[in-house]
Amino acid sequence: MSVLRSLLTAGVLASGLLWSIAASAATPSTPENGERWVVTQQRNPDAACLDCHKPDKEGMHGTHASVINPNNNLPVTCTNCHGNPGPHHREGAKDVMRFNHPMYSVEQQNSVCLSCHLPEQLQKAFWPHDVHVTKVACASCHDLHPKQDTMKVLNDKGRITICVDCHSEQRNNPDFNPAAVKLRKEQP
To answer: Name one GO cellular component term (predicted).
Structure first.
């Protein structure tokens, strides 16, 4: 019985060895024209983000939820703006961009926004962009995922109120940090 078992085991090992030799000898195939294969993403890059961060059943709101990056014509995804979360993401690791968070400088936060929004276009839209783009985080004035960005619907009086409130706070608060400002916005 043990001789039979030994022969059976040797046969299984020999066939496994033959299969592994045949697999390692095979060359990977390439497209007929000699180019490299193109790998396309199989899952939605936002799916894991939306599992935890969806404001409601409809997903994210606002223009960032369905916009195309004008510089590369690709859809904007969570990871485009916030980066790829690491294994310690839930513990507050500095692995994704958190807007209006003092761990990120104004330059770091605004560089994400300026990867799509060109400074010339922003300055044409409203002159304070030109003055504040290096001094105040974009997210200090703009809501990123609302149904409607309050700043876009403000009238002139509302804009002046925001300017006065922020500059008063800056003057009166020695610990004023423009990378962590969250303005109180008046409704139009």
So the answer is: periplasmic space
